[in-house]
7,8-dihydroneopterin aldolase (Abyssibacter profundi), 122 residues
Amino acid sequence: MDLIYLRDLRIETVIGIFDWEREIKQTVVIDLEMGADIRRAAETDAIEDTLDYKSVAKRIISFVGESSFQLVETLSDRIARIIVTEFDVPYVKVVVNKQGAVRGSRDVGVIIERRTEDYASA
Ligand SMILES: Nc1nc2c(c(=O)[nH]1)N=C([C@H](O)[C@@H](O)CO)CN2
């Protein structure tokens, strides 16, 4: 499987479990690795034959910017769900980190991997 990736996507959003965090926006930094088969696009040189990473980025920027989750776990899972179900991506790795959320640490967050079957309806 090939991978299309997007790194260091910085988005301002409401996120956190504490009262003060519900009143401000904080920066989350997102890295994505998305499974793809790029062989056809490499033959045709056509954007229609591959996953358009700009379309993915626009959708995630819009979703995260309007969201207000408490946990990075919830945010990362919702991002993965959008990428798998709306963009027909068979595998995604999502890294979400909050800059400076823990004193003494540069960043903290979660790394998840999801596949099509994780979001298959019953
Ligand atoms: N596993 C998690 N632990 C914590 C989270 C989280 O989202 N997942 N969040 C917080 C606070 O919001 C923290 O980021 C504020 O500094 C604490 N622990």
About this structure: The first strand starts at residue 2 and ends at 13. The mean pLDDT is 96. Strands lie at 2-13, 26-36, 91-99, 107-115.
